[in-house]
Design goal:
Elements lengths: L2 H18 L1 H13 L8 H21 L9 H25 L6 H12 L11 E2 L6 E2 L1 E5 L2 E8 L6 E2 L5 E3 L7 H16 L1 H6 L8 H9 L12 H26 L5 H12 L17 H14 L3 H8 L9 H21 L3 E3 L5 E4 L2 H16 L14 H13 L12 H19 L8 E2 L2 E2 L2 H27 L4 H12 L20 H15 L3 H6 L9
Antiparallel strand pairs: 1-2, 3-4, 5-6, 7-8, 9-10
Helix pairs in contact: 1-3, 1-4, 2-3, 2-6, 3-4, 4-5, 4-8, 5-6, 5-19, 6-10, 9-10, 9-11, 10-11, 11-14, 13-14, 13-15, 14-15, 17-18, 18-19
């Protein structure tokens, strides 16, 4: 293991990460001195975070000052894992230094959820007895397990006026700069923090290729340019362009949409993250056009970004490839099934108030939104889906596991893996009664190596293994089975909401410290797609050649 090379690259990555922190610092200064708000100020916390990041960068650069600049696959794996862990810790510091969250484990959970674009949160308003300042606890029950009662305290202090009256509570009481940072880290994690820094770092010898492949999603890593740095640069230029387009449409279609809201929604939406800056998430805007703009960009964020470049270059035939067709088919069928089962069912707002019975129009509006939100792993909500009929919840769980396309910002298993699995099964069944027939494994017209097919099969085994193991661990941690299984689906597939006690109407603050740490590990496991995380725990990985 070339530790000096690892240390040098980590030092450089941390330095560039500290530059990212300057943006929320300016946001904080703006809301402190220009647009004065009663919200807590976060200028000092961001300065402290930048200082910590620069100190860590200096330490790593010092130990890597004699590095040769050449590294290979093992070093790339360690760099990606280390950078994600360190970025999570640093991203958690503004939450802790600003006292937004007082429990360090909550801070790590929130930042891991942000960077992995999961969108699960532990932020929920503190409860008080009447108009007094004496805090009381939550008592949440899963309607399917009424004997289980989750008792916990809120995490976010309200903003009060001089008389002690509550002005803002919940997420809306959090510092504007911290809310911006919370959404911004989702945007950074969408394509990958290491992929972003590949665009500014000098050529990284052969190691740059492995860095890119280690962080990109899907069974087949498609490059769109001859050089790795150029590929990373093109991906981020497209990502930035789509971000600007969505911000424009959000402001254009909703005259009440604030610029801050538009950017934060876009950061969370295009990255398929799902963090909201309003207590009622997207439902608080009460605008169906805004919802459809978000639906479109949830769909866009779930498409392989390489496909956009092919279309920009006139290669429109690429959209007829099986992966894209399968993805569109799953979106349409999944949304249609959810809508069909919603008609005649009762809907509920996020605060638990009945909104009446769904007719065809309202079922299409909310059913399509939640179905695409689940499959794209965005996690935005407009209603409390935990109170929907059981059949719709099952459909959405399936969509969570399926996910979007490879090479996108979304989570889940990915449609390309399901297609490859289908081809493997088809070829194997045919081989039983035609043993002399040799069938090549192909996706469209592209031949897939046998090693890739085996990797896909192992991937499905890992998904099943960790789903079962994590569900059992959550049950041992005194969480009911429905909440446990749906929480695992949420964390592994980077969704953001679950069912039962983890529904979108509440938060994950009910979890114990152990469950939050386990959830954080599952989020990273799902975002980096299992293999490189497992490698870190393999003894052979650390053996010196």
């Amino acid at each position: 293991m070339r530790y000096k090379e690892v240390s040098k690259i980590i030092g450089k990555l941390l330095f560039y990460f500290s530059l990212m922190l300057i943006i929320p610092l300016f946001i904080s200064l703006y809301f402190q001195f220009i647009y004065k708000t009663p919200h807590p100020n976060a200028t000092i916390p961001f300065l402290e975070t930048i200082a910590v990041c620069l100190i860590l960068s200096g330490i790593f650069l010092y130990f890597g000052k004699k590095a040769s600049g050449v590294f290979f696959r093992r070093e790339s794996v360690l760099i990606v894992v280390l950078m994600w862990v360190l970025a999570t810790i640093i991203s958690a510091l503004p939450f802790y230094f600003s006292s937004t969250l007082t429990n360090p484990i909550d801070c790590v959970f929130e930042s891991m959820s942000g960077l992995t674009t999961t969108g699960a949160t532990v932020m929920c308003p503190k409860l008080y007895q009447g108009t007094s300042e004496k805090e009381t606890n939550y008592s949440v029950k899963n309607p399917h397990y009424p004997e289980k009662n989750y008792v916990f305290y809120g995490t976010i202090k309200p903003v009060r006026d001089a008389s002690g009256n509550i002005l803002y509570e919940g997420v809306e009481a959090v510092s504007k700069a911290v809310l911006f940072w919370r959404s911004f880290i989702q945007w950074l994690g969408g394509l990958g923090i290491v992929v972003l820094f590949l665009t500014v770092l000098p050529a990284l010898a052969v190691g740059g290729k492995f860095l890119l492949q280690a962080e990109m999603t899907g069974p087949v890593k498609e490059t769109i340019a001859p050089r790795i740095k150029e590929t990373a640069s093109l991906l981020w230029k497209l990502y930035l362009g789509l971000t600007i387009i969505e911000v424009f449409f959000l402001i254009l279609t909703n005259e009440k949409m604030q610029i801050m809201d538009a950017f934060c929604i876009t950061f969370s939406n295009l990255s398929t993250g799902g963090y909201a800056i309003r207590n009622d998430s997207i439902a608080s805007y009460h605008n169906y056009i805004t919802e459809w703009v978000i639906i479109v960009f949830m769909f866009i964020g779930s498409i392989n970004f390489a496909l956009y470049f092919h279309c920009l270059r006139g290669k429109f035939y690429k959209i007829y490839e099986p992966d894209f067709i399968l993805y569109v088919a799953v979106v349409v069928i999944g949304a249609a099934l959810v809508v069909y089962k919603l008609i005649g069912a009762r809907g509920y707002s996020l605060d638990g108030v009945s909104t009446g019975v769904y007719n065809l129009s309202s079922a299409i509006r909310e059913g399509t939104f939640q179905a695409i939100s689940a499959q794209s792993s965005t996690g935005f909500v407009t209603t409390d889906v935990s109170k929907w009929p059981f059949s719709t919840q099952m459909f959405m769980l399936l969509l969570m596991f399926i996910g979007g396309m490879s090479g996108a910002t979304c989570g889940g298993i990915k449609t390309s893996r399901f297609y490859i699995l289908y081809k493997i099964m088809k070829n194997k069944i045919e081989e039983i009664f035609r043993p002399s027939t040799v069938r090549l494994l192909k996706v469209g017209k592209k031949e897939i190596p046998t090693s890739t097919g085996i990797t896909v099969l192992v991937f499905f085994c890992l998904v099943a293994f960790f789903t079962v193991l994590a569900t059992v661990l959550f049950v041992f941690a005194q969480i009911d089975s429905e909440t446990s299984f749906s929480s695992v689906a949420c964390m592994l597939n980077n969704i953001g909401f679950a069912f039962g006690a983890g529904g979108p109407g509440t938060s994950f603050a009910f979890m114990s410290s152990f469950s939050k740490l386990l959830s954080s590990f599952l989020m990273l496991l799902g975002r980096l797609e299992y293999f490189i995380i497992i490698l870190i725990f393999a003894p052979i990985f650390w053996k010196i050649k």
